[in-house]
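In this section we walk through a basic example: taking a raw amino acid sequence and producing a predicted 3D structure, encoded as discrete structure tokens. The instruction is simple. Fold the sequence below.
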Amino acid sequence: MFTHNPELKHIFNQGNQHKGHQQTALALAVLAYAENIDNPAALTTPLSRIGHKHRSLDIRPEQYAIVGGHLLSAIREVLGPAATPPLLEAWAVAYGELAGLMSSLEAGLYADTVAREGGWSGWRPFVIEKKVQETAEITSFYLYPSDGGKAASFVPGQYISVQVYLPELGLRQPRQYSLSDAPNESYYRISVKRENGLHPSPDGMISNHLHNNLQAGDALQLTAPAGDFVLDTSKQTPVVLVSGGVGQTPFISMCEYLIATGSQREVVWVHGARNRSLHAFREKLADWSRRSDQFSSYVFYQSPEGSLPAEDWYEGIVDLTVLGNAVLRPGADYYLCGPTPFLRKQFRDLVSLGVRGSAIHYEEFGPQVLQLQ
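The resulting token sequence is shown next.
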């Protein structure tokens, strides 16, 4: 596909392409649609998540036809003689129906985005107003509209797409970063982890480019906030947050929102970090715990440094079974965010503690390939 349509390299995440995640996500989506072709309602949640990703990347209907044509060519090449005309026609129909469903869903998302005050379609220039180093690995970027207009509001938990030119690849590349502040009309904040190593993956190249090459005053292209891994702001029931590493960023936004709005919802936050010095926003969590009886936090450090002050911390990786009833709340919604192995473990442990799968929400880094039940 990239040979015949090289312009798509500027849209597709080359890190996910390199790791095969994008190809897997496409195959799973088409297969899931074919398996549920008589009951598309069963795919509402995964298709919604894909739709938000596509809207955030400014995907348009005509691009579905390009991908579909190359997908059928790939099926023909892989199956060889088994790819009979009736079989190819059946897959073409299934993909066409899926593309139509997605295009319709995304059209609604585009319309909703433009209708918001300060909303826009496509890419919009923003400027980095300031950079704040949270830890040796994580830096926050405060992004303001270059045109002086308002920044569209968002639902806590959503993300934005950031597009930069990456000299190493000779491409413009987009990446999604969770918003890490309460909604406001002036700016967006993202908190980005630097990827260490001599040869970071294409994913790491973007994050490191932000850290190393961009300073206050530099410009970025952004799409409007998107994503359906969000806090249900209509509820008053407890919220349990479980994060690993930089997976904490959407939860910072959720908590900032709850505090800013004077919410009385109970919040329990369990977070895991390699050590105390790499725990971004640590003092903010401690402050929230001191100030509010409705907020409690538990921290796991894989390698505690020296003698830590007395607080609710545990040595090792996040283990909800160790906390037991401390993280269980009647009627609570449970939100998980972190690397894929982290999500699998926390989901499994919550279910073992008696939490219903339908009450557990998770955000997977990159394309949607993880299916937890």
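Looking at the output, two observations stand out. The mean pLDDT is 88. The radius of gyration is 21 Å. In the next section we compare this with other chains.
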